[in-house]
Structures are given as structure tokens and as C-alpha cells.
């Protein structure tokens, strides 16, 4: 049984000077300290203490061996997205980050799958960067779930997703820059409450706006953290679609009829929650995700899956790796499927 973790993060060694590609101040960079510790930095400000697994591939591979993980999909830390920067500088920054992620994965290309990032604030540039990244060897795209007040159903972002479908490039969507942060002070509440809400907002936005009707069904799209609050509240959304025309005016089908259009990871940390998630999404649309190497992640990869009542061996195998093999399978782009974003609002 191949075990594939689709949700892991990296912050390659990027010096403050190099971070200046993105911005003159507040740029993300990595301070590496002694003893295998470091600090993610935002300009002069310390953002989060981290360990060497975030930038050292040898340490990561050792951790994977110890945990029985065969393959990780490696994506940037959301602090690195750079969506507020001038688009040209953001594109240059993404090229730098993507180059470093490739280098991080180069020593074990059969075990570390690189995911690129793109300047999503400019969908046309994002398409260019994604095309270059795929040509260079990236296996997917890692995006935030919004750019400022523009959600994933924004016309430009939707066009980018359609372009990724044409490229055959899978997309991993991660919540970030959480809504309502001014009311969620302390206790990591933005991560505990804001992240699930952000992800549910993204999924329902794609459904109720009709965006899924405009995106090719070939798009392979995964939402982190079990899809946030979505599975638990799907019944509420379906009920609203059937009872209120204002809910269904943009969508010809209720939310429950779009479940085959995306995947979610398994990072819900409770076998009972995972049981519900599998019941809602199907065993073929949930993949192992741990949020490694951060402390809020699943410290024993796959423990929730293996402890989930009612999953048979075949279903466990799908969640632990089989679905990810399908998700990251290489697929050639068909010229007729490529969608241009020219003329879309950046």
C-alpha cells in the first residue's frame, strides 16, 4: 500500500535580500538559527518559529521513513503567496520560490512531488507561471482560497482554474488570510474557526455562483483541512437551495450534485468526523493530508484513517494513497482545452 500525503508545506532557504524580489518591506524570508531551529520572517517581524524539516529535505525524508509515508506533495507556506504585491514582482517571486521547491525535491523526485505557486492576483500572469512551472517539472499548483475580496468564483480566477484543467495540472486550495480576524483574538482562533469557514465559503461559492459549470470537469481540485465546515453543513446548503430562489439563482443544481468535482484531504483529526466526510464525499474523493511539519498537523500520518470505523481495507488504501495516485497522475494538455484569461479582470 502506497502512502501519499497531499498536504505538506515547505519554506526553502530564502534570504531577506532574496525576498526583496517581492517587496521592499514585509517580505517573507527564512531565518535559520542554530540547533535545527529557525523563524519564518515577514520583513523585520518574527512570524512563526519552525524546525529544520521545513527546509531540510534530508530531515523530511527521515521523518517520512519513520512515519511510513512513501510520498509527499510539497507546497509553499501560505505566508509566501505574495498576493498583495505588484503582479510583475509577484511573478518573479513565484519563479524564485518554484525554483527552490524543485531544488528541495530534486534529491528524491520519486518521493517529493513539487507544487508551484502563482501570482493569482493577475490570472494571465498566473497562467504563464503555471505553464513554466509544469514544463520545469512541477506536479501541481498550490493556491490560496481568495485574493483580497475576490473568491475562487471570480471570473479571472475561474479562468485560471480552467487553464489548469487544460494543462492537466492539479490544484491544491489552502485557506489563508482568514475572514473576521479582528474578532478572533487569541487562542489561534483564526486557524480554528476562520480556516474552516474560509474553505466552506470557497466550495459553496464555486457551486452557487455557477462557476463549476464554467470549469471543465477534468480539473482536479482539492481543498485542505477536510473541506473545512462544508461536509457538516451540506444539508443546510441543500435545504436553502431548494427553498430559496436567491440561493439557487446562479446554480442549476443543488450543492450535493457537485461533490464529484473536487477532493478534500483527511486533516480532520477525529475518526468520527472522517466517517462523516467519507459518507458525504465518497471514499474515492478523500486523500491523506497531514499539514506536516506544523504542530497543528496530524503527527501520526494516517492514524485518523486507520482508526475510522467502517472503512474496509480497500477504502483505507484509497484514502492513504490510491486517490492521490489518480489526483497527481500526469495528463497531457489538449490544445482545445486551454483557456485564455486575456481580457479578464485582474
Automatic annotation (TrEMBL):
<dbReference type="InterPro" id="IPR006680">
    <property type="entry name" value="Amidohydro-rel"/>
</dbReference>
<comment type="similarity">
    <text>Belongs to the metallo-dependent hydrolases superfamily. ACMSD family.</text>
</comment>
<comment type="pathway">
    <text>Secondary metabolite metabolism; quinolate metabolism.</text>
</comment>
<feature type="domain" description="Amidohydrolase-related">
    <location>
        <begin position="4"/>
        <end position="327"/>
    </location>
</feature>
<keyword id="KW-0210">Decarboxylase</keyword>
<dbReference type="InterPro" id="IPR032466">
    <property type="entry name" value="Metal_Hydrolase"/>
</dbReference>
<dbReference type="Pfam" id="PF04909">
    <property type="entry name" value="Amidohydro_2"/>
</dbReference>
<keyword id="KW-0479">Metal-binding</keyword>
<protein>
    <recommendedName>
        <fullName>2-amino-3-carboxymuconate-6-semialdehyde decarboxylase</fullName>
        <ecNumber>4.1.1.45</ecNumber>
    </recommendedName>
</protein>
<keyword id="KW-0862">Zinc</keyword>
<dbReference type="InterPro" id="IPR032465">
    <property type="entry name" value="ACMSD"/>
</dbReference>
<keyword id="KW-0456">Lyase</keyword>
<comment type="subunit">
    <text>Monomer.</text>
</comment>
